[in-house]
Amino acid sequence: MYLLYNAVMLVVSRRKMWKVTTKCRNSLFENLQELHPKEEKKQSCDKCKLMDDCRRILKKKCESLGEENYIIKEESMAIRSKYSALKVKYKFLKRQVKSEEGIESDLTKIGNSTLVEKHKLNMCRLSCVRKFVSDLLDVVFGRDILTNSSMKGIKGASKPPLPENKLNDVMSYTCEKFCVDVGTVRAAVRQKLNICHKSRTIQ
């Protein structure tokens, strides 16, 4: 009988303990359920705040990039206008160079720097040095300058000397062409100047 009583009491105590344990478990679960949404809400608030901060930073960056893009567009327009102006200038200079090349193609250089027309140079007589120098002086200087000039200048006279560079080019070109010395060419120049002076006095 005593054993039966103890067995019954053990069963009753176990049932009570099971009920208490179940109740504690349920209350703990309910408490966890109540706490968990709060944590989620807190985490979601933190995430929203972080996203708002990121959005503000990105907005500022977009604004700064927009300003930089505007500046780049302005600079690009200025560069395009400069390029167009330079292109027009280049075309103009190119046409000018072509026209000058067309003019210079009719000229040839004698000596170091003197330019003469090709067809006039080809018309100079080649039968002798004297005739060639006479014709070449007419081509380079012209009859008026030869009439009113001297070879080296005369003291007390109004006749200036011929331009030295051109005269040296004439003499060096003639020396190379006819393989003669400078004295022969200089004598031909003096003879030409004397003829021009005499023709002036006769007129």
UniProtKB/TrEMBL annotation:
UniProt-listed InterPro entries: BEN_domain (IPR018379)
Pfam families: BEN
Entry GO MF terms: DNA binding
Record-annotated BEN domain positions: 111-203
Name of the protein in question: BEN domain-containing protein
Biological source species: Araneus ventricosus
